[in-house]
Specification:
Elements lengths: L6 E12 L2 H25 L9 H14 L8 H19 L20 E4 L8 E2 L4 E6 L3 E6 L15 E10 L2 E12 L8 E7 L5 E3 L4 E2 L7 H20 L8 H35 E7 L3 H4 L14 H14 L1 H14 L3 E5 L19 E2 L2 E3 L8 E3 H11 L4 E2 L20
Parallel strand pairs: 8-11, 11-12
Antiparallel strand pairs: 1-5, 1-7, 2-6, 3-4, 4-5, 6-7, 8-9, 9-10, 12-16, 13-14, 14-15
Helix pairs in contact: 1-3, 2-3, 4-5, 5-8
């Protein structure tokens, strides 16, 4: 071990569940009860202004509610306690000035929150491996359930990595129910990375442009047939929504159309996440220091509609650009780079580098006229450099100065807060 102490590394692993119709109905009821319990807890917590109940009082209120309301009794006691813990943590995040969380509020059915049920006690799951592709576990009030075994779980089986499973959460997406395991392993601290430094420019035309002149690109997330099917489904849903009387629930056929749209969009997202994992693993293993531009992505994707008094311009074009930016998921790319670089002894640096696409990296002259689409031609007569605009921006990012970012990527015993680094001088 080289005399270095082992550190804890916490990760999540998602696996698909194989459920019967009865088991799926039980989980649906538990997830609905969890949302109702959250709303009841929020009403109880905010009933008296300026005074908040203690955890003991909230726990007693939950126990009484599960006794008085049979619907809430469908949620296991441990999962109900997890709702209280999550709600309390939401308030702590809200009062933390370095955390971007908003004030906790009621969960509305119109926004369709993702159904989820916590399984905090690992000993009740009794996880076993059945074959090379299947495992089995127990869920409270559901019974034994099989799940897809795609990766070794820490502490489960002889050939699994050392560590343990600390908890799980059952969630539902467009493809059905899945379980997300929370794992904890002891690893040796990584030695300092011996690679080079690189700057990365995130874009829409080119996904990732590196300062060494290379690029990382991808094709469309959906095939031509899938994209055409999605367009037809979206037109069909628009017709069904227009024909439905106002303030009425969607019919079964309309809801099936929405489910088909959700599955296609989820398929595109899965392909995007897979590509991002592959590329970020390659970059984290190759480079020791990775510099990216510090972007306010939420401000960049705001609508351009404006107001009635001051209507916006080029609203449709801005909406298309916003969809393209959201489809690239720039923030997720940086998040993956942060923890993967930290695992390999590297670091990610966010630099406040405004105007990187308009500045010539060779002479430093700044002029918006230098960029024409993907071509950058310096208008300075002394310089006259010509090249790819994204490569020029990546070189400017690589030359900029900024603080190292370790948030959510460190491997220490005390994990750092979820916050952005201070602005560089």
């Amino acid at each position: 071990m080289g005399g270095r102490e082992l550190v804890k590394r916490q990760r999540g692993h998602k696996a698909r569940l194989e459920l019967t119709c009865e088991q799926s109905a039980i989980l649906e009821e538990q997830a609905s009860a969890a949302i109702t319990l959250w709303n009841c807890l929020h009403a109880y917590w905010t009933h008296f202004p300026g005074r908040r109940p203690t955890l003991a009082q909230a726990d007693q209120a939950i126990r009484q509610a599960r006794t008085d309301v049979p619907f809430l009794a469908a949620l296991p006691a441990q999962a109900a306690q997890a709702v209280l813990k999550t709600y309390r943590q939401a308030w702590e995040n809200f009062f933390n000035p370095g955390h971007p969380a908003k004030r906790p509020t009621f969960k509305s059915k119109k926004r369709r929150p993702r159904p989820a049920v916590d399984v905090p006690q690992v000993r009740t799951m009794r996880i076993v491996r059945l074959s090379a592709r299947w495992g089995q576990l127990s869920l409270p009030m559901v019974g034994r359930v099989r799940f897809r075994w795609t990766k070794g779980l820490s502490g489960v089986g002889k050939s699994s990595p050392a560590g343990k499973v600390t908890g799980a959460r059952v969630v539902k997406d467009a493809f059905g129910w899945s379980i997300v395991f929370r794992t904890e392993t002891l690893v040796q601290p990584a030695a300092p990375h011996q690679g080079e430094q690189v700057g990365i420019d995130r874009g829409v035309t080119v996904a990732l442009a590196l300062s060494d002149g290379t690029m990382r690109e991808h094709g469309p997330w959906l095939t031509g047939r899938e994209a055409g099917h999605l367009r037809r489904l979206e037109k069909k849903s628009a017709r069904q929504r227009a024909a439905r009387p106002s303030k009425t629930r969607p019919s079964g056929r309309e809801q099936r159309t929405y489910d088909q749209i959700a599955r296609l969009r989820a398929k595109a997202k899965c392909r995007a996440v897979d590509w991002q994992h592959q590329i970020t693993t390659e970059l984290a293993g190759t480079f020791a220091v990775i510099k990216v531009e510090k972007l306010a992505i939420l401000n960049m994707v705001k609508s351009a509609e404006g107001t009635v008094e001051a209507p916006g311009k080029n609203v449709a074009q801005k909406a298309g650009l916003n969809r393209s930016i959201s489809g690239q998921a720039w923030g997720r790319t940086v998040t993956l780079l942060e923890y993967k670089s930290a695992e390999r002894g590297g670091q990610v640096v966010k630099v406040p580098a405004p105007g990187t696409s308009q500045i010539c990296h060779r002479c430093g002259h700044r002029d918006p006229a230098s960029r024409n689409g993907t071509v950058f031609a310096c208008v300075n007569p002394v310089c006259g450099w010509v090249g790819h605009a994204d490569t020029n921006a990546a070189i400017n990012i690589n030359n900029a100065a900024g603080p190292a970012v370790s948030g959510r990527g460190d491997l220490g015993l005390t994990r750092s807060a979820k916050r952005q680094p201070p602005r560089a001088a």
